[in-house]
Amino acid sequence: MKNAKGLVFKRQQAILKYLKENKFAKTEDLAKLLNTSNITIRRDFQNLENEGVIKRRYGGAELIEGALNEDPYSNEENDARHKIKESIAKKAAEFIEDGDSIFINSSSTAIKILDYIQDKRVVVITNNGKILGMNLSSKVEVILTGGEVYGRKQSMVGDIATQIISKITATKCFMGVSGITSNSGISTSVLQETTVNMKMLENCNGPTFILADSSKIGIHHNFSSGDIDKVNYVITDINANKEEVKKLEEKGVEIIFSEDN
């Protein structure tokens, strides 16, 4: 099964590469190029369209402009953004105590927390497949939810993931988001992840932490995945919109600013 998923991922990456170079791809052309069937290519098109990176057209598909978000920033800007995310993760790790059981969602920032928890005994419940490639302490116990794999983010989604989370109660929840506002709460760019995020918030009997760099403060993305009254803390950087920070605080959310910005 693992090899099969790997082949699917490689084939879909080849499709995206072709679309990037040619703008439009015919189903039959890709089937010949990748030595597979038209039905398989159509299935790949469906999955990639669900991820929001392509648009199917009659006889083929085209790449959605800007969907891959390939290096929209300069190297210097990317380095700065990376440092901010690392700083946010490092600050969040300060709130983890020995013996905690924590929810971590599919966020690339939230999963970085595990690089900073040091010598603490922690149970991590996550739908983030990237955890499998991390070098974790022997004191960190991992429960990976399982479920359908959302390829672009390597996250686990669907009924299986949600059912596993529903059977677990965590002491803390650390969640990255695509956006957060005082009115609409937290949001994500991936529809399939909304129910997973909601269930994590619901099954946390302690504080919930939203990890969001300043570009996400005051922004509502495509899909709502939690009300603001489910959020106890937001960890962000000092560039966050001051007006929106004040509005969040008025809703009872405590704002924590990361260091080294």
From TrEMBL:
Entry-linked PROSITE patterns: HTH_DEOR_1, HTH_DEOR_2
Gene3D superfamilies noted in UniProt: 3.40.50.1360, Winged helix-like DNA-binding domain superfamily/Winged helix DNA-binding domain
GO molecular function, one term: DNA binding
InterPro entries, per the entry: Carb_Metab_HTH_regulators, DeoR-like_C, DeoR_HTH, NagB/RpiA_transferase-like, Tscrpt_reg_HTH_DeoR_CS, WH-like_DNA-bd_sf, WH_DNA-bd_sf
Domain HTH deoR-type: 8-63
Keyword annotations of the record: DNA-binding, Transcription, Transcription regulation
Domain of life, per lineage: Bacteria
Keyword Transcription: yes
Pfam family name, one: DeoRC
Name by which UniProt lists this protein: DeoR/GlpR family DNA-binding transcription regulator
